[in-house]
Amino acid sequence: RLCSSECSFSRPLDDARNASFFEDLKGWSAIADRLYVWDYTTDFAHYVQPHPNLAVLGPNVRLFVRNKVRGVFEQGAYQSRGSEMAELRSWVLAKLLWNPSLDASALRRDFIRGYYGPAAGPVAEFLDVLEEAVRSSGDDLGCYSPPEAKFLSLETTLRSWDLLRNAERRAARIAEYARRVRRAQLPVAYVVLAKWEAFRSEARERKRAWPWTAGRDGLLRWFLDAARAEGETVSRAVLLGCET
């Protein structure tokens, strides 16, 4: 059983960045009758933090098929609910593991339309913004990426929050859609809380409007209330110190 724990999940597993894992996969495929893969689909250091790996899910599953992998364990957050986009990721992976030839992008669109209803458009655009940010940043997106990752910039975070506030307005009339949008907002709020002082300073220097609460404690209270409502039980120390 091969594990992908040290790979870059901003690129497929046969990308040059993942050459060591890919060579192991090809080597074991040539000699092993029962080859299994333990793959990783979340940020284990920061479950709630944005982890835009959706674009590699389809290519990676098909890579396993081509290399005679007989079983795949896709590990996400195992201690708590509330992992970033866990429902979308789990649904797409379940479909792909059943039929690897399916179009992962089409599956993603189908889920977003059904799960977010009237808020689907801005939620889909929000995910696109994150994927473009990680591509242009050059970040590896490991399964222990920190909040200091380059793709989690102030600009990306402001744009993400603007799109999700739009989604919130569109979903406001239907409680279940509104709750799902609030869950999608948690990862962005988490980054803001983790980088509060740096973001505040940068926003002042660049004369950017600040869309969050004036004080960190206000956003923290919102985050904790929303996280508890979702049954989230695991948060990182990055949130501690200002809890009230």
N-C termini distance: 45 Å
- In angstroms, what is the radius of gyration? 19 Å
Shape type: globular
- What about the largest sheet? 3 strands, parallel
Question: Strand order of the main beta sheet, please?
Answer: 1-2-3
Which spans have pLDDT < 50 for at least 5 consecutive residues?
none
Helix content bin: 40-55%
- Name the helix and strand elements from N-terminus to C-terminus, one letter apiece: EHEHEHHHHHHH
> How many strand units?
3
Structure class: mainly alpha
Can you count the helices?
9
Determine the strand fraction and express it as a percent band.
5-15%
Mean pLDDT: 94
List the helices and strands and how they pair.
Blueprint: E1 2-3, H1 19-31, E2 35-40, H2 54-66, E3 69-75, H3 86-98, H4 104-116, H5 120-137, H6 154-171, H7 175-194, H8 196-206, H9 216-229
Parallel strand pairs: 1-2, 2-3
Helix pairs in contact: 2-3, 3-4, 4-5, 5-6, 6-7, 7-9
Give a verbal description of the structure.
55% of the residues lie in helices and 6% in strands. The chain is mainly alpha-helical. It has a three-stranded parallel sheet, with helices on one face.
List keywords for this structure.
single chain, about 240 residues, mainly alpha, three-stranded parallel β-sheet, 9 helices, about 5% strand
Short structural description:
By secondary structure, this protein is mainly alpha-helical. Helices cover 55% and strands 6% of the residues.
